[in-house]
Amino acid sequence: MAEAVPGTLQRWAIDEARKALYDLVEAAAAGQPALIGRGMKCAVLSPLHDLGPTEQTQMQALPATPVTTARKKLGDLLAAAAAGTPQLILHRRTPAAVLLPAAEPAPLTPMGTRPSQASVTRLTALDDALDEVLAPATSGPGHQAASFGLDALDRALGHLRPGTLTLVAAAPGAGGSLLAAAAARHTALTQHHPVLYAASGLTRADIAARIIAAETPVDYRRLRTSALTPVEEEAAAGTRARLAGAPLHIDDGTDLTADVIARTAPDIPDLALVVVDRLQQTHDPAVPLSGPALPAATRILAHLARNQHIPVLAVLDTDLAQAVAALDPDTTLTLTRTGEHACIDIAERDFGPHTTTQLRAELPYARFTDVTSSSTAPSSDAHQSPLPASAPSDSDSHPSIAAAQPAIKAPGPEHACRTTPTPPQQQAVLTSGPARQRRVSPTNAGLSTFISDRVTHALEAHGGDVEAALKALAGDGGSAIPDVMELFEATRVETSYQHTAYPQLPEPLTRKRRDSADEVWEARPKFINASVPDGTEVTELDLNAAYLAALQSAHLPVRTITHNPEGWDDLANYGKGMDLSGICRIDPIDWEHPELPHPLGDDRETAGALWVPTSVLLSLKDFSSPSYGQLCAPPVVREAYVAKGSAALFKALVSILNEARMQALSEGDELTRTYIATMYAKLVSTMGDSRKNPELRRPDWQHIIRGQAFSNLRRKAIRAHQAGLTIARVGGTDELHLTGDVWAAHWNGKPLFTEGRALNQIKIKNVSRKGER
Description:
This protein is α+β, with helices and mostly antiparallel strands. The chain is 32% helix and 19% strand. The protein has a nine-stranded mixed β-sheet with strand order 9-8-10-11-7-12-13-14-15. A six-stranded mixed β-sheet has the order 1-2-3-6-5-4. α18 runs parallel beside α23 and α20 (546-553) runs antiparallel to α22 (651-667). The radius of gyration is 33 Å and the shape is elongated. The model is unreliable at 104-122, 136-143 and 374-445 (pLDDT under 50).
């Protein structure tokens, strides 16, 4: 076996040799060998005539690697050569040099001098460059191996090119992470090439669950809540076994920086793709890849792509043009989504926007598919193990969903993906405000027919029998809960929260026994004014769609819930920005107004502190303010579990439900009205119990929404009292009985009530005499 003697050879550390490999191969071919090493492993890049006679006669049998691929695989080639197997390096598909084991291996210290410019140039022949473009099949795993596995996108993009940084720009909730996961899945699981998945904000469990959901497929939310059926669990286990040993490497460390990613990537042999999920536009001290650090981070990632000659795919959590431009990616994929319909605008740095493609979002399975794919069939981007024919799915469990699924119309031509680039003067208008301003209104995108289609199908399925259709839609075991969750998922285009990422519940929200309640008090009113004489005329008012109105205005936690054992230092400013929401422990409230409902509920015992949702806390703060006559002292908060929140989570859903509700009322369509009322009522009543609603497990949301509904009613009652009316009864979410002329009463210079059926109006249920029922 041939061996090379190091002698006085120029010495190169492997990282530097990788950068200069074109030069070193050309120099070796000209008779100038170089010693390359990492640690104790060394080999000499030598001219072919240094091969021994045996190797020269059997040269065609030696391992051969094109110089372009050898840059990526240099660590493996070095190890093989040091172990005694010569490695041929090809130039223009012809053997040009060989890596031979060093006769006297020794640790390499600093790199030696570079070959002189007289003997070596840094130029690449056009023939080699053409090979990289026109003969990708010979270029190894780093060349054209990385792609999304989505035919439409891969055709439009031309795959993920080595040496480039591709940025997926998507507003929160649009699915940017799922698009990145598609590339990781296809490259690692189908093409079997190594992938580094750098997860910033996600955990390895999140990523693994999304992979299982997409590859099986099973419902992601039910997978994360351990609510799969036995058949689905068996199918998921089969997927787990199939994916064992897949070359997908996950780094979800909290200290994940671009430098860490760049240092980790060379340690993965034959690395074909780096996925960075995700870059966060808003600064967070706990997230290194966020805020002002992003431009420098993307420069490091772009350098990593060029240096390692691999594609790097990063996700940015906004589609604002200014934010994208600041990061200067080679290629940008701007993803927008309306329900199941997704558009991807593709642009390159040097050429600008050049094409648009469309995909279908299958969010229950945490994936995108081509538009022609079936919603329940496995996607074509992996060798999947579909569920057995007998396995129940969401549509199997709810026949009305399965049959009516096509009724969720895709956006019409006015909302289709753009086929021509948006003019720059229009781009400035589109991106000058928050990301949600670019979203197509779900109501206008075809979802306005969701409810009517469901009702029509139920009637057709039951031969026009209204009672049977109502039972199928709104009865026990009916489709109201899965339908409203499907509609919520489709309208999340305007939100920034992944509602299936459940935080750990704090102790007060944990039920001590299966059928018991937790410790949070919602302050439900149960007030009867004993001072109102029998025989007094009482106007019984009914609030319209109380839970629907509460869904519209409730401020809900969407970030990590944190414990504040000291309560609030700045309660006076709480509610002005509604930055925090959750639950808090407060002292009892002294209430000296027997003619008014108690702000903490009329059946509340006065002794001891109690936990309340922040919606109730805000109402207590209101009642202590001058606008309500300072009815009580400001609440004293002793402890809190709160998080940054949002008041927009359900606004799009409420808009669609209320539009359909008002139409049903105007047409006298009692079936549709009852179906809608059941949808929002059951959404609130089940979102805290995974047994009743396996798709949503947020008891904190449930308490806040209920507390909001009760507080809304209580505020109206107290305003009525301050307007000169007498409160006779207050109960539940919508029952308000008053004495006096309710339509003539004013509060703060405005009419107290407006009669009607809209959410901000009120209607008369009955006029009676107290004690005559």
